[in-house]
Queue: 2 jobs
Job 1
Amino acid sequence: MSRKQVFAVAQMGPVHLNDTKEATVARLMEMLQEAHGRGARWVVFPELALTTFFPRYVYDDPAEYDRFYEEGLPSPAMIPLFDLARTFGIGFYLGYAEKLVENGIVHRFNTSVLVSPTGEILGKYRKIHLPGTKDPIGDPEFEHLEKRYFEVGDMGFPVFKTDAGPMGMCICNDRRWPETFRTMALRGAQIFMLGYNTPTRNIHHNEPVHLREHHHRLSLESAAYQNGAWVMAAAKCGSEDGFAMIGGSSIVSPTGETVTRAVTEEDEVISYNCDLDLGAYIRRSVFNFAKHRRPEFYGPITGQVGVEMDP
Ligand code: ING
């Protein structure tokens, strides 16, 4: 008898620079309500879900950009969402900009939190792969300054035990790096949750627009199949003050098949009754890590950063 649970992904349409956190959280709550109506037990929200994707803008003074961050967990703005989820008995992933002060030093991370259906904070993840630059490149259409506004995550890739199975979290650009998912899968993760804000253009190269969706889907489906895990990915998308971001929120099965995806670039809930045992045969056969991996030959993966040619 397979274990099935309904998962939902709550895709967000644009959040504009002048939108209030209260109005934005109200949108998240509306989608939580819809997910509840569909019998969802878990919901995935996007990366930086409470604000516009502010790393596209150049700020010098923290007084200008502090407003985008949350302090405390739940932060004041998050409390209504946390309360409603607990009322519904729904667990969720939420991406947000985290600010904290430790030993008098201010730290800022691009963070996600995992909350259980009973409202327990299971843990956080802080984004490790920060794309773009620390300093402006001088073209407002192409700025992507996550290295300016966030430190590299310091929590590694943790995996959390839940009633749906072991869950791992990552954020946006992390999905492009197979190391992300393999590390979590080696720690037992059978469900990967992630949010993303992916510009349709931007990031230094002006590739054909269709490739943004293609690489997004390729990354999710590869991760799912190569680790025998479910992947749930939530976009914040559409045109935020004229800056376009891709949609394509998806639920991908451990076989690497996208079983449902969003069709708009607005607030949209997708859901699927996931067979949580579907990946077991893949993890027992083709990707039976213990039987088939040969880490003695994988040295360069953790031993070096960039390419090093043999002499
Ligand atoms: N956004 C983008 C992402 O990785 C990007 C950055 C876009 C990188 C296109 C490469 C190509 O989806 C974030 N927030 O990481």
Job 2
Amino acid sequence: MNSGARLVLLGRQGAGKGTQCVRLSRHFVVPHISTGDMLRAAVREGTELGLMAKAVIDAGNLVGDDIMIGLVAERIQADDARDRGYILDGFPRTVAQAVSLDEITASHPLDVVVDLVVPRDLVLSRLSARRVCRDCGANFQATGTEPSPWTCENCGGDVVQRDDDTPDAINKRLDLYETQTQPLIDFYGESGRLAQIDGVGSPDEVFARLTKAVEQRL
Ligand code: AMP
């Protein structure tokens, strides 16, 4: 058994982070912690957090830093993440979140921050065609020939378009990525913790690049 890993995956929405995080999670035997998935679960369950977050998410805006930091601090201290590590997907998204993450993880620092690089025009077309299973969260690409209603091949759930995958919200999220999240690349680059990986290619090719880069730094 390998000794786990503490990873952050950065990259534009639609860069393939979700797909690669699932594989990395199996490979390093650590939980995949997606703040977007956590928020969507809260929305589905109708919790106080979910009720507050729904309008923010649907508009393509960011949920407040304090809320997100509290959520992640609690999650990475859970039994499955505390000792072996985790893969953070969608967090941090701002420099303030990254600074707090360093404080929270001071006793067990991050091993590496990976930036999955995919050009904006490519992710734009992927996001417009993205469909997700409402139950298991699996991602699919619509080609226009799918049956309606579309049923998930993994679990039989409904495959739908995310409420925030409208053209306006997609463009807004990509703009926010440039202004809020891109500065993280400098933040982690300056402290020597960043690995930039070409995210264009088949899932297998990208996964091979990712594991090689991460294993070099463990
Ligand atoms: P994602 O699935 O990562 O694209 O996240 C979906 C939405 O959840 C984002 O567009 C934000 O509204 C919200 N969200 C997820 N992670 C964060 C975060 N770290 N900070 C602020 N908002 C977040």
